[in-house]
Amino acid sequence: MNYFHYNTSYFQLPSFIVNQIQSFRNFLIKGVKEELYRFPIIENSRKKLTLHFITHETILKMPKHNEHNMIYKGMTYSTKLYVPIILTYKNLKKIKRRRILLGKIPLITSHATFIINGIPRVLVNQIVRSPGIYYRLGDLTEEKICFFRIKYYCEFIPLTGLGTGLKLQIDTKKRIWLQLGMMKDPKINIITLLSFLELKLYTINQILQKNSDFFKLFYRFIAMGKIFFTAEDNTLTTLYEAACLMPNTQIKIYEENIKNENPEVVSWYKRKKINFLYTNLFKKNCYLGKIGRANINRKLKLSIPMNEVFLLPQDFLVALNYLINLTVGIGDLDDIDHLKNRRIRSVGEILQYHLRLGLGKLAELARDNMRKGFKLQKIFSTRPLATTWKDLFGSHPLSQFMDQINALSEITHKRRISCLGPGGLNRDTAHFDVRDIHSSYYGRLCPIETPEGPNTGLISSLANLAQINGHGFLETPFYKKKYFFRDDKPFFLGADKEEELKVSAGDLINIFKQTNLQRKKPIRYQQDFFTTEWNQVDLVGIFPMQYFSIAASLIPFLEHDDANRTLMGSNMQRQAIPLMKPEKPIVGTGLERQVALDSGTIIRARDKGQILYVDCKTIQIKHANLGILEYNLNTYKRSNQDTCIHHNAIVTPGEIINKGQILADNSSTVKGELALGKNILVAYMPWEGYNFEDAILISERLIYDQVYTSIHIEKYETIAYNTYLGPEIITNIIPHLPDHLLKHLDKNGVVKKGVWVQTEEVLVGKLTPCEFGENPSAAERLLMAIYGEDLLTKKETCLKVSPGSQGRIIDTHWLEKEDLELEKNLGVSVYILQKRTIQVGDKVAGRHGNKGIVSKILPREDMPHLQNGTPIDMVLSPLGVPSRMNVGQIFECLLGLAGSFLNTNYRFMAFDERYESEASRKFVFSQLLNAQAKNNNQWIYENDFPGKSKLWDGRTGERFQQAVTVGKAYILKLIHQVEDKIHARATGPYSIVTQQPLRGRSKRGGQRLGEMEVWALEGFGAAYTLQELLTLKSDDIEGRHALTYAIITNRILPQPNTPEAFKVLLWELRALLVDSFLGF
């Protein structure tokens, strides 16, 4: 085997957001022109004036501001679409050329996001059924009438949004039915349809290439109505309704009516019916496109040209032939969940579809304005396109608020694949087969990362190396086996072609041992697993993490975790809050740098040059080719989830940098690597029950050293509208409120920068006009004389700090909304920054699904400590490991301990067992031995209990009886913080109807006393407590006012009265004419 030359070439990972960028690029270059080319020629009512577009001279004007300014000013990042038009005056024989503005098209940013009204949004890719034809087995187990029990059926699926589709069905009595779209009824008998199309049996046989077997089968199927006919009949109208089991008398009446009609009338009537049927059945219901045409040609072995994008009668008859053959065991059924039968509607396709809708509305508006004789300036309007984009980005389920918690959540959101949305599935009706993992997902969709709850299996994530081809199908790269040991580039393969080849995974071949090639290799072939010789393998995978998503690939020792816990770890990494002092993990997988680079959150040099100037806001670089460029840094900017976006420069003046070198880190990166948490010294042991059931005990060092301190920025915004009573006023003179709430306002009525604000303090003073009586009372006249008219003619609608919030004002600015330009309404945005330390009730987690809530914070001296006196930072429950089967956290914490002593970071891929058995355990123990030898500390690796250490109780100084697993684990602080969730209320708003407290923290609601709580109080016999909760503390209006007065004046508490909800019930009964009398 000396002739082998090992593949020493590097496989460079593709950009993780290239699919979004490339799809939008195709939309701008091709999609816009295609839709403009479809735009119809507009004529006036007398057809003397026509106009049409010149599509090849379309102009897109770039926006005036960059992405950051659009976010700051609350504007939409878009381009203006100008199209030249030609006006033809037929009477005057004149031609004029004009350029008009059709509207704006939202632009994608360099980070694959859209900025709509200053808010970053993401268009999620949608996975739908590919257009074409699919044969499936009917559900014979359904308890339906035997007449409608379907044995086989085939579906014609159109392109999403361009038709409802058709369905052919064969029931258990061998009757053939046609169903339109998703409607269950009515069903059309196939004989009825063929009679409408005036097809002879001889013609049908000709179309099907004289297939005598089918002719016999078809004859037998349509003869189920017991009525005989000959092949020389002109039409099949004699069989009309025969298969529908109509009485013979009705059939005879129908035949007589046809014979008595004038032949010319019948012929004309049938031609009209045929045209109507062809237009409505084939054209309107089934636009296949080139993708659907290719699928039908491949399935039915046809050679129809690709430009025939609609369903043809020939497709219909050959599909009927295939369906009948299935009843005698000829042909194969389709797997609708296979990725060869599903395609991706990417960003560009979704935008092109909505551009088509907008231009359709524009064409209707232009026709109406043309008939009314409007001038050219008024014929076209930008409103149809603006309305279309507003509907798409404002209410469409695929347009989502971008997840900006950290860099990983951003890039994962852009690579998300959803089955939901228009043209997709419904989460309430989606069955298990759709949600389950399919074998064709290999290297294309991640089998691990999916949400928990009702969306499980319906929302997935792209695998690391997956790409979307031009037709929307997912592909993944492979090496050809014969080129595996040569410097050759891989090639991408779709799911349909892959199952025809024998594929070996890339992690099963150790290219460093040639003898390993002589063993049998496990392969995948035709959706099953086999073992075969190396010389029979066709394809080889690229690398072990090829079939996982980005988030799952960031989990070290992934192969030692249960899949359910890996799913939780993948999802919780996206929920990690960027910390004030981020730290990259000691143990990683090597993808941390690629994720940070492709997320777009860090700043890189455009070319080689020298650093001239660096501060917290700008970096100036003198480039050899580009001159002096200035790079702007984000300083304490707010994300969509109120986390902090902040850049830290990592270069110094005078430093020589190369192209692509990192200039500044983001709040969730360190030196260009993803950093979501902290390396914490943990111990797996019980401690006085405080870490029972996933509760976590932490040291106060994490607070004093600001280990888990994070920065959060809240945005408050208000707009001064023009009301019908007059404009709203932003001012610092608010007579309705005391002075201590207005002390931070400037002369314009806006809070000053740098001040500390607390709950209920005013951020923006605003007065709104209100109606006032013509004849004020004496008391009202006195108040007007003292405070002025504003007290009674205007009400205060000030912007205040929400309950439970406080912080420092870091920025205020005036803004003018784009959609309010006509009224010139002004708005003010205020940003409040607050630092949050970790506290009891916060949620923390590792990367292996090991999550928990902080239950107690101990002083450092009370925490258990190591033999060298180092106190433990966090105590975790050891019972959370064996039952959850996520042993990878044990490997991680032990290797992290060795790395902290050796001052080494580890980056390696999962599935290292391909080198040798127990490779993970051997490597971890070897590193612990190295750390023991280097530091001369015997306790790092104890021979009697490797991986464990003796600990001492910080309170008593005594040693614990059992050795404890101690290590450095990478722990994340999640966005589920107690400060956002805890809530208390004394009094507050009540429901108008029932007068019961509202629900929810945002509405200052109360705690619901439900049915089970009532049972509990009844079980204890606490009658008076129950009565108090259901009356005085709920909806007894008179009672709660009397209770408040009694508490303030220190008097005897009042007796409860009748609840308001009970009174509502009585009134509802009276509305039903049922009166009741209360005897108390």
TrEMBL record:
Keywords: Chloroplast, DNA-directed RNA polymerase, Nucleotidyltransferase, Plastid, Transcription, Transferase
GO cellular component: chloroplast; DNA-directed RNA polymerase complex
Protease listed as a keyword: no
Domain (RNA polymerase Rpb2): residue spans on this chain: 252-345, 400-468, 1005-1075
Main localization of the protein described in the UniProt heading: plastid
Subcellular location field: Plastid, Chloroplast
GO biological process: DNA-templated transcription
Boundaries of every DNA-directed RNA polymerase subunit 2 hybrid-binding domain copy: 610-1003
Enzyme class: transferase
Any coiled-coil regions, as ranges: none
EC number(s) stated in the UniProt entry for this protein: 2.7.7.6
The reaction(s) this protein catalyses: RNA(n) + a ribonucleoside 5'-triphosphate = RNA(n+1) + diphosphate
GO function terms (MF aspect): DNA binding; DNA-directed RNA polymerase activity; ribonucleoside binding
CDD domains: RNA_pol_B_RPB2
InterPro entries: DNA-dir_RNA_pol_bsu_ext_1_sf, DNA-dir_RNA_pol_su2, DNA-dir_RNAP_su2_dom, DNA-dir_RNAP_su2_hyb_sf, RNA_pol_bsu_bac, RNA_pol_bsu_CS, RNA_pol_Rpb2_2, RNA_pol_Rpb2_2_sf
Keyword Transmembrane helix: no
Subunit structure, interactors included: In plastids the minimal PEP RNA polymerase catalytic core is composed of four subunits: alpha, beta, beta', and beta''. When a (nuclear-encoded) sigma factor is associated with the core the holoenzyme is formed, which can initiate transcription.
Biological role: DNA-dependent RNA polymerase catalyzes the transcription of DNA into RNA using the four ribonucleoside triphosphates as substrates.
Similarity comment text for this entry: Belongs to the RNA polymerase beta chain family.
Protein name: DNA-directed RNA polymerase subunit beta
